Amino acid sequence: MSGSSKRPVSKWQRFRQKDVFVRDASRLGVRSRSFFKLEELDQQFKLLKSGMTVLDLGASPGGWSQYAQSKVGNKGMVLATDILSMQPISGVQFVQCDLAGNDAPMRLFDHLQQRKVDLVLSDMAPNITGNATIDSRNYFDLYTAIFKVCEVVLIESGSLAFKFFQTEETSILKQNCKFLFDTCKIYKPQSSRSTSQESYMVSRNYHPQNMAESPLALRFT
Ligand SMILES: C[S@@+](CC[C@H](N)C(=O)[O-])C[C@H]1O[C@@H](n2cnc3c(N)ncnc32)[C@H](O)[C@@H]1O
User: Closest ligand 1 atom, CA of 145?
Assistant: First the structure.
């Protein structure tokens, strides 16, 4: 038996050590490898500009909020929210909130002092149970929550970028975005693991008057 006191390294830890984005996140002092996904989305779609007001849903541990804050600067504002707590980030406001709760949109709007936002971001993901029916329902609860938040806080002509997981229901999500926005594009960043089912839907130029008749609203009312 060797006298080494080194702890065994798990397969997952070895995988993470090899992951260039995990290494970069640690080297650059950013909160998560997700930081690079938003950076890529922004490079692709020019989502963030100085002075914008941004709402970051499912923000913890804070990589997206760090990136968004660095782009909107001191003239802008980032409000981050998550069901979990988040360590403070300079220039970012935080509200701990379950977005699936009915009161979430108004709580966020009140926190914004009833000011609408230019961009809603969501990197939210539910816990996976392994039961396809329950997981599909949980995803949809989160997507519905995102649109309910948009209904209350997103400014006319604003943008939405959110994470979704490829399922047979992806088409209704896309239909919903096309109904509410002028454009809807699907994008898988290189920094998103190829083994992950996640992708991002990026929608521009919001038409709030269409919300009540949108496919998702009709399905869940
Ligand atoms: C992939 S992480 C987000 C990573 C983050 N964008 C970053 O850059 O660090 C997904 C987050 O969604 C949050 N989430 C899941 N369900 C939620 C809910 N119902 N309400 C609020 N946040 C939720 C989780 O707590 C988790 O922090």
Answer: 19
Q: Which domains does the chain have, with CATH numbers?
A: 32-219 (3.40.50.150)
The answer to pTM > 0.70 is: yes
* Pocket around ligand 1 at a 6 A CB cut-off: 31-32, 34-35, 58-64, 82-84, 98-100, 123-126
Q: Which atom of ligand 1 is nearest to the CA of 124?
A: 12
C-alpha separations of 139 from 21, 133, 134, 144 in Å? 26, 10, 9, 9
- Our answer to whether residue 178 is catalytic in this structure is no
Question: Which two structure tokens, joined as six digits, stand for 189?
Answer: 């960043």
**pLDDT values of the chain reduced to their tens digit, one per residue, 221 residues:** 344 445 665 655 555 556 666 666 666 778 888 999 999 999 999 999 999 999 999 999 999 999 999 999 999 999 999 999 999 999 999 999 999 999 999 999 999 999 999 999 999 988 889 888 888 888 888 999 999 999 999 999 999 999 999 887 889 999 999 999 999 999 999 988 888 889 999 999 999 999 999 998 887 66
